[in-house]
Amino acid sequence: MAGQAMRRLRHRSLLTVIRSYRRILRKELAAGLGSVRQIVREELDRESNASDTEEEEQDDEDEEEWKLIICVRHDLNMSVGKVAAQVGHAVHHSVTHSAWRDLKDWEESGSKKVTLKTESEEELQDLLEKARSKGLLAETIQDAGHTEVEPGTTTVLAIGPAPARRLDAVTGHLKPLPDRVQQIEKQNKKLLERAERLQKEVDEEKRKHKRLAKQFSAFRQYL
Question: Which domain of life is it from (predicted)?
């Protein structure tokens, strides 16, 4: 009987300790949730205040086109696959470092991406500095150098996503990146057309030569 009484006492003591821990955990959890709620409220208030101060500008931006610009160094003569990989790195960086509101506006506008041509690293750096001076998200990509270019080579520059009018103020003078496959096809077409013209000229010269030969033969017979 004494043993059973001791076991009941220990059991009750254990239950009391468990209940005490539960009460403590509930209080700590409630305090933690309260802190989280406070942080969320402060963040929402901060965003709300920022939204109020920029309401007119934001309304204008919502109505216009958004896009992401990727400037590619054409002077490196990278292959189509290499360009695609570098552009992919640039887009990934822009998406992971942009504010969620900018991403939302860009996606709602169609997630437009534009590749433009640059001719040197100096030109790329100038665009980078100009974009950042205007408050735009901008970053260059450096290649690891495992395939076509030297390690650390700056290959592309991503600017945005942002409203088109802000991006055009930085990159509006640049031309679209040409498709190298189409370039080769155009060059081949030009070479083929030139070869056909030369062949026609050669054929015409042969006909002239035959006519002269006939005339000369007839002249000799006359003599």
Answer: Eukaryota
Count CA within 13 A, CB hemisphere, residue 66.
20
- For residue range 128-162, what is the model confidence (pLDDT) as tens digits? 999 999 999 999 999 999 999 999 999 999 999 99
pLDDT at 115: 95
Of residues 64 and 105, more confidence is placed in 105
Exposed, middle or buried: residue 201 (CB in 10 Å: 0-12, 13-18, 19+)?
Answer: exposed
Q: Which residue has the higher pLDDT, 16 or 176?
A: 176
For the domain covering 64-178, report its CATH number: 3.40.1490.10
Q: Which string of DSSP letters, residue by residue, matches 80-105? A: HHHHHHHHHHHHHHHHHHS-HHHHHH
Q: In what order do the strands lie in the sheet with 112-118?
A: 112-118, 66-73, 154-163, 138-142
Six token digits for residue 61: 């931006």
Q: Which residues contact 130 (CB under 8 A, 6 or more apart)?
A: 170
Q: 150: phi > 0 → left, psi -120 to 50 → alpha, else beta; which?
A: beta
Q: State how beta strands 66-73 and 112-118 pair.
A: parallel
